[in-house]
Specification:
285 residues, alpha+beta, 23% strand, elongated
């Protein structure tokens, strides 16, 4: 006689906590379950076979080892502290207990709703699926501490639940964001922004900025767009025009003088750019 689904869950789940959110907000991610699980034998979960399961989950290996295959690529071995984040029905994700592994113990927390799926998809696109979480500090001990509520249903207000879910997702991806923030390309983009902000009235061309920073203009323009989401030329123009509006509001200079102080070659060029950006002429007409 085959094992029932309830009997299977009772065997593999060492403890679990369910979150009940009163009046869920569809625009925000919501936590659903927190589970500590141990798998032995034949175990495999394939996103291609889970199209009815909405939402996603964060999985952290605690003991033993597991396996993760992404986009049909070569499987990655998961050791203690290795974590992955994915949507349940993501067809590019398959996780399993490798042959000869003996056992795999992992902690997972699931998130419900379309907002959770969208956010997890965006994190996967930006940062990937794999993360590293220490078992002795930060997120994992905090989640393990909730074991004392195991077997219960924890009621949460919607905004508190969303804050909890977002904090977990932010903690998971925080290491990647720190690496990006400290990377050479991120520092280069930051230095370019600092030059623009410190001297907004100078005629800072892309070539001049690149020379000051010791890189090619092509490299600077590409890195700046990758790290900030806007073009370097657009950033320069925006800062000059904002400075122009501030100077005009002060009423101490003529339009021609403001155009010069903002690094524009002519008053007419300044006026055209100002109208495109703010919908009115610098004179207010």
């Amino acid at each position: 006689m085959s094992e029932s689904w309830l009997a299977y869950l009772a065997r593999v789940r060492k403890w679990q906590l369910t979150f009940a959110v009163h009046c869920e907000f569809g625009s925000l991610p919501m936590p659903r379950e927190l589970v500590y699980e141990r798998q032995v034998g034949d175990y495999r979960q394939d996103g291609r076979n889970r199209f009815r399961e909405a939402g996603g989950q964060l999985v952290v290996t605690v003991k033993g080892r597991g396996g993760l295959a992404l986009c049909g690529g070569k499987p990655v071995e998961l050791r203690a502290g290795d974590a992955f984040l994915h949507n349940h029905r993501d067809p590019d994700v398959c996780y399993f207990l490798p042959a000869g592994a003996g056992g795999w113990e992992f902690l997972w927390i699931s998130f419900a709703g379309a907002a959770s799926e969208q956010l997890i998809s965006e994190i996967n696109r930006a940062y990937g699926y794999l993360f590293r979480l220490p078992l002795d500090s930060g997120l994992v001990p905090e989640l393990m501490e909730l074991r004392r509520f195991g077997g219960t249903v924890r009621a949460m207000a919607p905004l508190a639940a969303a804050e909890f879910a977002l904090r977990i997702l932010a903690s998971a991806a925080g290491g990647v964001e720190n690496d990006l923030r400290m990377s050479p390309s991120s520092r280069l983009a930051q230095k370019a922004q600092e030059l623009i902000e410190s001297n907004p009235g100078e005629e800072n061309s892309i070539g001049l900025l690149a020379t000051r920073l010791g890189v090619s203009r092509e490299h600077l323009a590409r890195v700046f767009r990758e790290r900030t989401g806007m073009t370097l030329r657009g950033c320069l123009a925006e800062r000059r025009l904002c400075l122009g509006r501030e100077l005009l509001s002060a009423g101490e200079f003529s339009v021609k003088e403001v155009a010069q102080k903002c690094g524009f070659g002519s008053q007419s060029g300044f006026c055209r750019a100002y109208r495109r950006r703010f919908g009115s002429s610098p004179g207010g007409r």
